[in-house]
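Minutes, project check-in
Item: structure for the 352-residue chain
Input as provided by the requester:
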Amino acid sequence: MAHRIVTLPGDGIGPEIMAPALEMLRRVGEFEFEEHLFGGAAIDAHGTALTDETLTACRGADAVLLAAVGGPKWDTTDPNAPRPEQGLLGLRKGLELYANLRPVRPQPVLYGASPLQRERIRGTDLLVVRELTGGIYFGEKVRTERMASDLCIYTVAEIERIARTAFRAARSKVTSVDKANVLETSRLWRQVVTDVHGREFPEIELSHMLVDNAAMQLLAAPGQFDVILTENMFGDILSDEAAMLTGSIGMLPSASLGDTRLPYGAVRMEGSLGLFEPVHGSAPDIAGQGLANPLAMFLSAALMLRHGLGLADEAATVESAVERALADGLRTPDLGGGAGTAQATAAVLEHL
């Protein structure tokens, strides 16, 4: 029986990298793809970034594959105007996807593409576990002519479940990142993470790090990290910073998962749902030019195969094909080369 996948190409380079990913997936398994407008494209067609029809379709799918959303066409400071990013927040909340996993493992053949010296990034293999449905992004927002505010709220239950996800994913240690010297939400975060660790995961090493220090340590000594656990906004920023360890944000995939008790690297639990997408944005400056790097999209599809569908062998096949294509010299413009989207796609497909 074919797996049912809802695809959300989105905006900018989104459709350009979605098409190669679907071509690749058709070669490794049986899938039924159902495409829906999302983000800016949905705003243009329906006046909202996420329609009820699209959300319903996603809830009924085996997994959701998203490319990218946003662009200057929809940028606005009007609080009442729809924005493509509202679709992302609505999808995460509507599907109860509270755990965002962003693996960061620079390929040795790409050490030279990173702005950091190879000695600093050698051996880096970390995972950012970001809480995805709480915090300041979802708190009450107020805007008047003379002031604005965004409320940051976290509950004990929200912190406990994301902490468990991080500890289950860890090989040896978890670094919990907060701003406990200033923020009350961070003090609660630190307390709850410490309690979960002591009660349920004493065999895993736990340390706490302030977010400003974590931003520095990611560049100074990234190899020290195994799993980085953090709240929504901090995770958003730190994972984009960590992307540069791989040489380009065009190399970083992500998985957003719902209620599951399985560790990172294992198959999904029956009934859980996942959203899989590259970390990068819609890159409107290169849209339509055939220059987009599809590798993060391929790797996001691999995460979907492993975590969304339980197809670990097929996921490994895709990841191996990407690694071998890079080893053979594939370089897209963001990696210092000249291979366009079509060339990169052909190079990966050749190694499947």
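Outcome recorded: DSSP finds twelve helices and twelve strands in the chain.
No further action items on this chain.
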